[in-house]
Amino acid sequence: MPAYKRILLKLSGEALMGDDAFGINRATIVRMVEEIAEVTRLGVEVAIVIGGGNIFRGVAGGSVGMDRATADYMGMLATVMNSLALADALEKAGVVARVMSAIAIEQVVEPYVRPKALQYLEEGKVVVFAAGTGNPFFTTDTAAALRGAEIGAEIVLKATKVDGVYTADPKKDPSATRYSAISFDEAMVKNLQVMDATAFALCRDQKLPVKVFSIFKPGALRNVVLGGDEGTLVHV
Ligand code: UDP
After folding, report:
1. How far apart are CA 110 and CA 82, in angstroms?
2. Mean pLDDT of 47-65
3. For residue 97, is it within any domain?
4. Which residues are near ligand 1 (CB < 6 Å)?
5. Which of 96, 104, 210, 215 fits 159 for a cystine, CB–CB 3.0-4.6 Å?
6. Domain holding 89: CATH number?
7. Whose CA is nearest to atom 15 of ligand 1?
8. What keywords tag this UniProt record (predicted)?
């Protein structure tokens, strides 16, 4: 039995790169979609927010020297590309998916309309929220927190490169250990990196728990959805 009825899955753009240095790796996206399809087959309603870091980020790389807001709009457009690729791969895997954009781009993607998103989810369709929050100076983590709260998701599942929140950076400190659960307050006091500050504050205020887990560990998403001891649960 799944532990949740409705989840908001946050995938970083980088997760789509696989071993490539840039862009969308076909084998990686196909594998990821298999895992998502498996979760939908458990009867869980799935909404997804995907980042854009594999293509463009407003604060790094090609954006250096650019006007920040312009660069951020480019970053949001990058998430639209990723969302299209993800929805396409989902459909190919037999999962009905809809992309909804926070920025009007109607010839490509339908606009985000909350009641419509809720309807799709109730119909068992996977909804991919594209273009982040639609505003510069935010991140897709914040979009995940925002949409998660709006659609009444029971949890935000943050799929990352590491398999949870650690006492210290495991790359720098080999003695670092993973928390299986930690409260928002404790994570804040200890200054642990869960999500960016805006996303963190939103989830905390809305009492929306966050689970941080590894996207690269096969079966991890399913295990999380089944309530297994996977990754780190950040709770109220
Ligand atoms: N972005 C934005 N507003 C949002 C979400 C994203 O301006 O609400 C821009 C921002 O420039 C960001 C880029 O889109 O760097 C890609 O998103 P993010 O860095 O969150 O992607 P990820 O790190 O998850 O791949």
Report:
1. 15
2. 92
3. yes
4. 12-14, 51-53, 57-59, 71-72, 75-76, 78-79, 132-133, 135-136, 138-143
5. 215
6. 3.40.1160.10
7. 57
8. ATP-binding, Cytoplasm, Kinase, Nucleotide-binding, Pyrimidine biosynthesis, Transferase
10 Å CB burial of residue 88 (0-12, 13-18, 19+) is middle
Place of tokens 């029971």: 154
In percent, the amount of the chain with pLDDT more than 90 equals 90
Distances (CA, A) of 85 to 16, 27, 52: 10, 12, 12
* Residue 173 labeled ligand binder: no
Q: State residue 175's pLDDT score.
A: 95
Please count the structural domains in the chain. Answer: 1
Its domain, for residue 202, covers: 6-235
Look at residue 31 and tell me if it is in a domain.
yes
Atom of ligand 1 at shortest distance to CA of 141? 20
Q: How far is the CA of 179 from the centre of ligand 1 (A)?
A: 27
Q: What is the mean pLDDT of residues 161-177?
A: 92
The angle, 0 to 180 degrees and rounded to 10, between the axes of the packed helices 140-150 and 197-205 is: 10
2 is in an annotated binding site: no
Query: By 3-state DSSP, what share of the chain in percent is helix, strand and coil, each rounded to 5?
Result: 40, 20, 45
**What angle is formed at CA 39 by the lines to CA 206 and CA 80, rounded to 5 degrees?**
65
Residue of minimum CA distance from atom 22 in ligand 1: 51
| Residues 112 and 102 sit within 8 Å (Cβ to Cβ) | yes
pLDDT value of position 61: 79
Residue 1 lies in a domain: no
Q: Please indicate, yes or no, if residue 183 is contained in any of the structural domains.
A: yes
